[in-house]
Design a protein that fits this description.
This protein is α+β, with helices and mostly antiparallel strands and about 325 residues long. The chain has twelve helices and eight strands. Helix 4 packs antiparallel against helix 8, helix 4 crosses helix 10 and helix 5 runs parallel beside helix 8. It starts with 18 loop residues before the first helix and ends in a 5-residue tail after the last helix.
């Protein structure tokens, strides 16, 4: 059996930094590192990303509620199956979802100009392995992040808001409503900043950068709730989030962002047909459905919503929100989002 790896966790994980919270998270991450090194003999380093790496992880009643997001830097390509098999075991063992993305060490200088890698460079923490493992990571500025990243961010958060809309006879989940709406507001803030060539690793820093934005007060509310999940949200929060996100879509020109070759190829494999900008089409439908919707009713104009979704789904759909929701997410699963 391999010995436990040395793990460096000498930094705050959350704004609600208490001895109990820190002990819980340190224990979780130390165990994840041990299991990852035991399962993957080609693992060189483990890198913590996301809110906990930036001191912005969310806790409730002293217990972490965010996922743990990590990168496994490997000496060889591959490793996806190892971490797909490990993830459900870790979920069962520590009670929290753990997402580990493997990457070949030699690929670090050649990663795409994505928001994810910008976040990694600005705020990730190497918790095991060589501390300078990320030194070769490709360097680029916020203004160089691809426009497709802005469109994808706004499309994904629109889909999250639609997912939170209860289907027919399904009880509303108020926590998911607030969570998805808050994520949409934060996405509107980040997309607006990226469109202007601005960015910062922490939410409060990005909030300061957005001080002249017309939705700045809404952004501030979202930041406070995301960091504490106890800050009160105003009435009609879902609808306010919808408006902020759709404003960002128009302001950034996200509707006009077309797909690249990778999106076309992936859709051709998954859908077994060729389509013109399939990811762009799905994003546009998400925004159109969102513009028609209120919480918890869903789209007010079902015939119009049906016409919006129909080009994405070849199979016969019903004309209820439940059927449209199923059809939209089935089509979305066939694209790269």
């Amino acid at each position: 059996m391999r010995s436990r790896p040395e793990v460096r966790l000498d930094f705050p994980f959350t704004e609600n930094d208490t001895l109990e919270v820190r002990a819980r998270i340190e224990g979780d991450l130390s165990y994840v590192a041990y299991r990852a090194h035991a399962a993957d003999r080609h693992l060189v380093a483990l890198v913590l990303t996301g809110g906990f790496s930036r001191g912005e992880g969310t806790t409730r009643y002293g217990v972490p509620v965010n996922d743990y997001d990590l990168i496994a830097v490997r000496s060889r390509p591959g490793g996806g199956r190892i971490y797909r098999d490990l993830a459900p075991k870790l979920m069962e063992e520590i009670g929290l979802e753990v997402d580990v993305m493997p990457i070949w060490q030699r690929r670090l200088p050649y990663v795409g100009r994505k928001l994810f890698w910008l976040d990694v460079r600005l705020g990730a923490r190497v918790i095991s392995g060589p501390p300078d493992i990320l030194a070769p990571l490709r360097r680029y500025e916020a203004r160089e992040v691809t426009r497709a990243e802005i469109a994808r961010l706004l499309g994904n958060r629109a889909a999250g808001m639609l997912l939170s809309l209860p289907a027919d006879n399904e009880p509303p989940d108020l926590h998911q409503r607030d969570l998805q709406a808050t994520k949409a507001v934060l996405a509107a803030m980040d997309a607006s900043l990226l469109h202007e060539g601005k960015y910062a690793p922490r939410m409060r820093e990005r909030l300061a950068l957005s001080r002249d934005h017309p939705y700045h007060a809404l952004f501030a509310t979202a930041v406070e709730w995301k960091l504490s999940q106890s800050h009160p949200l105003p009435p009609n929060w879902w609808e306010r989030a919808r408006d902020a996100l759709l404003h960002a879509v128009e302001a950034t020109g996200a509707r006009d962002v077309r797909d690249g070759l990778v999106e076309h190829a992936l859709h051709a494999v998954r859908a077994r047909r060729i389509a013109y900008s399939p990811s762009q089409a799905v994003r546009r439908v998400a925004w159109d459905l969102l513009s028609l919707s209120t919480y918890p009713q869903g789209p007010a104009d079902i015939p119009l919503a049906t016409r919006a979704v129909r080009p994405l789904e070849r199979r016969q759909m019903g004309t209820t929100w439940s059927a449209l929701k199923r059809g939209f997410f089935a089509a979305r699963a066939r694209t790269l989002q």
